[in-house]
Specification:
By secondary structure, the chain is of the alpha/beta class. Helices cover 43% and strands 21% of the residues. It contains 16 helices and 16 strands. The longest helix has 19 residues.
């Protein structure tokens, strides 16, 4: 199949071949590879210069693909890549080739008319985003792919294939640093952000948890104003880089694998804190700890937890682990087995940020959960927008029907609190009720909030 854009005038680089040959084609997906990608993108830019056209380029990367390989096996991962390649190949309006640059990263590009470039680019990016989001059926299992997309263009972002791909990669890393599963378009500001990320990566490699990391605790109350528990929140104070928000460094720690070591420190620190505060009148509370998917799949996680509980003389019933909806990309027996083991020990399990990802009702029914936490993005508009209010009210009812308790995150006004209470929400967390605080500020008066 020839390139479909007429400006290529018969260029013969196929979009895909069934029998990979030489070094031009990827053996796994049948797509042209890196060498062909750079050659054809350079050709497109050269033709665009001559004809007064633009070129839009996009890098598509499957988020946390390493986790898919580690938990489901490389054969499963290979099939997922083939199916994603098929999806990208079938995109109707991206008339130029689709390439597999490396690993789980694909490149697409297309020539644009300069007078309609902005509108056309918006349409193409939206089509691309919608295409990669749908459910995959891989080897008899469901997979909800999370993909980050980085976009750059000629002539705005460079005039060579190398520059266009490099800037698309910068945008891609910006999308991943922001949490992944989104689109980022290259800007000059991205360079400063990427440089900061590199500084954080270097600092993270030499981090000493007990010296630079600390824990703050945010209270969670029930509808009667009684303290139900505390969520442990990680903080990083660096001598040169200052206070680094969790949103910046948690994903970096997951990428490097350091989140497992950091998570063990958090667990030990929380258990020791529980023993210290139970003599201060805080005897019936549950401490929530955020758990990374990498911790769940790390060898010996359950055994490590049992050891920490024994050494600190802490009861498992005093702990609750919060997992995110990203765990839904891994329905492996290993993950389910770990969560079942936690429940058997008496540890509670909560699904955090419910509603913003890909949690299906099937998974909610099958996973051993106790609590669902409604994301703050839903709560902030319930007093202003009828549609948001209707969604939250319905979600609370649904969660109760499934047999779970509901925590509303991000409660910041009395009006929000009253609405949520009237809908039967079980527990509340937010700045209205209490900001994250150091252990020294935890005391008996917290047991009763002025609701």
């Amino acid at each position: 199949m020839e390139l479909m854009d007429p400006i290529f005038q018969g260029e013969t680089m196929p979009r895909r071949v069934n029998a990979p040959t030489a070094q031009l084609y990827d053996a796994l997906t049948g797509l042209p590879g890196r060498k062909a990608a750079y050659a054809m993108l350079a050709r497109a830019i050269s033709l665009a210069k001559k004809c007064g056209r633009g070129v839009l380029a996009a890098l598509v990367d499957m988020d946390r693909f390493y986790l898919i390989n580690e938990t489901r096996g490389t054969a499963f991962g290979d099939e997922a890549l083939r199916q994603m390649a098929n999806r990208l190949y079938e995109l109707s309006h991206w008339s130029c080739s689709v390439y597999r640059l490396s690993g789980n990263t694909f490149l697409l590009f297309r020539m644009l008319r300069l007078d309609t470039a902005a509108k056309e680019a918006e349409t193409l990016i939206e089509e691309l985003k919608n295409s990669v989001e749908g459910l995959l059926q891989v080897r008899g299992q469901q997979l909800y792919p999370f993909c980050s997309i980085g976009v750059s263009s000629f002539p705005a972002d460079g005039d060579t294939a190398e520059l266009i791909v490099r800037h698309a990669d910068t945008a891609l890393r910006q999308a991943k640093a922001a949490g992944g599963n989104q689109v980022a378009v290259y800007t000059e500001d991205d360079v400063a952000h990427i440089n900061r990320m590199e500084d954080l990566r270097r600092a993270l490699r030499s981090i000493v948890p007990g010296e630079q990391l600390s824990l703050h605790y945010q209270p969670i109350y029930d509808a009667a104003g009684r303290l139900r528990g505390l969520e442990a929140l990680l903080r990083w104070q660096h001598s040169q880089l200052g206070n680094i928000p969790p949103g910046e460094f948690i994903s970096l720690a997951e990428q490097s694998g350091q989140i497992v070591e950091i998570g063990e420190w958090v667990l030990s620190e929380v258990c020791r804190m529980i023993r210290r505060v139970r003599g201060k009148g805080l005897d019936d509370i549950i401490i929530s700890v955020n758990l990374s998917p990498l911790q769940i799949t790390a060898p010996g996680f359950v055994e490590t937890l049992q050891c920490v509980l024994a050494l600190t003389e802490t009861s498992a019933e005093w702990l609750e682990f919060e997992i995110t909806e990203s765990i839904m990309i891994d329905s492996s027996k290993r993950t389910t087995s770990v969560l079942n083991a936690l429940r058997a020990m008496g540890v509670r399990v909560a699904l955090d940020d419910f509603g913003i990802g890909y949690a299906s009702l099937t998974y909610l029914r099958e996973l051993p959960l106790h609590t669902l936490k409604l994301d703050r993005s839903f709560i902030c508009h319930i007093t202003e927008q009828h549609a948001e209010a209707a969604i939250v009210k319905a979600m609370i009812s649904l969660v109760h029907e499934l047999g779970f308790e509901v925590v509303a995150e991000g409660v910041e006004t009395k009006e929000q609190l009253e609405l949520l209470r009237s809908w039967g929400c079980d527990f509340f967390q937010g700045y209205l009720l209490g900001k994250p605080m150091q252990e020294e500020a935890l005391c008996a008066p917290l047991m009763q909030a002025a609701l």
